[in-house]
Amino acid sequence: MTDPTNPDTTRSDTGRVALVTGASGGIGSAVARRLAADGTAVGVHYAGNKTAAEDLVAAIRADGGRAVAVAGDIADEDAMSRAFDAVEAEFGGIDVVVHTAGQMILGPVADFDLAALDRMHRTNIRGTFVVAQQAARRVRSGGAVVTFSTSVTRLAFPGYAAYAASKGAVEAMTLILARELRGRDITVNAVAPGPTATPLFFDGKDRETVDRLAAQPPLERLGTPEDIAETVAFLAGPGRWVNGQVLFTNGGLA
Asked: How distant, in Å, are the alpha carbons of 23, 54, 70, 119, 253 from that of 48?
């Protein structure tokens, strides 16, 4: 295994291939880098930020890794079928699917815009289902599927009802898919981060709010994208006896 903090470590190619959705974002980018550091070839998926995805591919290749950028609306089954096709064509198959792509829209139940609810649920629920469906059809024996939930499903913060509801659906389909893949030697788990220092998290929050959230975990800090990526790397690699679980990766917050 390569140490991603040591640029002098020689990268070894494991022969495994991953597709990371939402890899142009904060957590997705960290996951793609972490898997590449372990010697996994990575399909860097993006929906709109082509430049960020191509920059990430260039960075992974510059470090001696293998990567390719693929595009697609995660809720569009034809677009995602083409994205999976592109990764398979480039690297010969897919062993790991990490689905980080999603949308977060906040607001109280009483005033929530139902059109916004529909948009978010299309991305978070239908999008996860589409990606999971492709993964169930294509991931090779010995592989792993990792979806993303949120610790807010336990924390129940006001204003998060619509978002948490969409992620509760992600947890349900993840646990059921793990059982549907019985006999194929494929693990299926969800990661549920707590407050994590990404641009999405900081957007719209004042310093007092950020400091209050950072102080809540026993470790008394925000998570980082790299913290989350370490958990994903474990599930995608050595964590073969963890299956059908939701891992609350939040420093002890819940």
From this structure: 11, 12, 11, 16, 32
The catalytic residues are 163
Closest CA to 186 of 141, 221, 227: 141
Cα–Cα distance, 186 to 143 (Å, whole number): 5
Convert the pLDDT of each residue in 128-137 to its tens digit.
Answer: 999 999 999 9
Q: How far apart are the first and last CA of the chain?
A: 30
Q: What is 17-195+225-243's CATH superfamily?
A: NAD(P)-binding Rossmann-like Domain (3.40.50.720)
* Domain coordinates in residue numbering, the chain: 17-195+225-243
pTM of the model: 0.92
Q: Is 105:49 a contact under the CB 8 Å cutoff?
A: no
CA–CA dist 214, 194 (Å, integer): 10
